[in-house]
Amino acid sequence: xxxxxxxxxxxxxxxxxxxxxxxxxxxxxxxxxxxxxxxxxxxxxxxxxxxxxxxxxxxxxxxxxxxxxxxxxxxxxxxxxxxxxxxxxxxxxxxxxxxxxxxxxxxxxxxxxxxxxxxxxxxxxxxxxxxxxxxxxxxxxxxxxxxxxxxxxxxxxxxxxxxxxxxxxxxxxxxxxxxxxxxxxxxxxxxxxxxxxxxxxxxxxxxxxxxxxxxxxxxxxxxxxxxxxxxxxxxxxxxxxxxxxxxxxxxxxxxxxxxxxxxxxxxxxxxxxxxxxxxxxxxxxxxxxxxxxxx
Length: 295
Ligand code: NCD
Fold this sequence. Notes:
Layout: H1 11-30, E1 41-46, H2 52-63, E2 67-71, H3 85-92, E3 98-103, H4 108-115, E4 120-125, H5 131-144, E5 152-156, H6 163-172, E6 178-182, H7 191-198, E7 202-205, E8 215-218, H8 229-234, H9 241-245, E9 252-254, H10 275-293
Parallel strand pairs: 1-2, 1-3, 3-4, 5-6, 5-8, 6-7, 8-9
This protein binds N-carbamoyl-L-aspartate (NCD).
């Protein structure tokens, strides 16, 4: 199995990931290792910058007893000599048992999966999808709020170019939730995603940061994907301590990180801030994903 998009992922698969992730939490917390993928190799092919995704996948593989190869700067690879992605994939599948790929072009992970006989995991393809991030986001919510059904979400920021929220919305459609979408006017959630999920969950586009949410999910305005720098500057927004004080006592604030200005650093000490817990959960969730996909 490949993991390319959150669209069409089954509830059973999500439940399997959550169950396994829970069993791996202690290993991740204690920074020890198990033998579940001993003798297996993960290849991480990162054609775009990454801190958390790359390091947490590598950590996850080490904690499963496996090995890691890969690159994080395509300039040091034959891509800079003009090698096409399909050739790179055919080579790397001979060296490894699973491939994690991040690439600036939408559809690149799907293309890699077509050429690969080993599982391919999409770690972000342009502004399209980032399914493992959405799985760890949902897992964070289930751990921190102890449930997902019945919650109201405020998803804020760059909903147009932000791939994490595209994946998250597809996964949320499996639950009984209400989603409020807030973005600068030029950065709305793609209509086709809204259309697809709104038959299953209530989706409302709101024109300000609303306080009546159980989960506030903020995203970075994706500067690198903006054709016009002026448009980027006009699109900035911020969640500050004043806004956070108006939230419900037990609301949580999430962010896939990296954070730039969208959440003021003064919010970090507020008990509602859960973005660093969220990035930690990337390890057990990615351990679960790797162990389910690699046979
Ligand atoms: C996100 C990404 O790369 O899409 N980062 C991540 O994987 N945690 C979010 C972002 O870059 O804004």
